[in-house]
């Protein structure tokens, strides 16, 4: 892949290549917009049990910092060290 160009792609597709050094992230100071996952349900205090389980599962699985973005944090830390 070396020298073939520049591309923008989701981190989860490229994390292994970044970790191995096959790809090098560029423009880390210019992050792309975050995209979210949303659960839309009717308003009200009563949330059906299955919906609550779905929401809790999504939060557990996708909440917080995605594991595939850790490679960018490592690269960013290396590039900033003297």
TrEMBL record:
Pfam families: LysR_substrate. Residues 1-62 form the LysR substrate-binding domain. It comes from the Bacteria. This is LysR family transcriptional regulator. It comes from Mesorhizobium alhagi CCNWXJ12-2.
């Amino acid at each position: 892949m070396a020298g073939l160009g520049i591309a923008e792609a989701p981190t989860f597709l490229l994390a292994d290549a970044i970790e191995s050094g096959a790809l090098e992230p560029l423009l880390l100071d210019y992050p792309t917009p975050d995209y979210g996952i949303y659960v839309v349900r009717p308003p009200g205090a009563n949330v059906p049990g299955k919906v609550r389980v779905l929401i809790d599962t999504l939060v557990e699985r996708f909440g917080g910092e995605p594991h595939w973005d850790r490679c960018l944090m490592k690269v960013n830390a290396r590039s900033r060290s003297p």
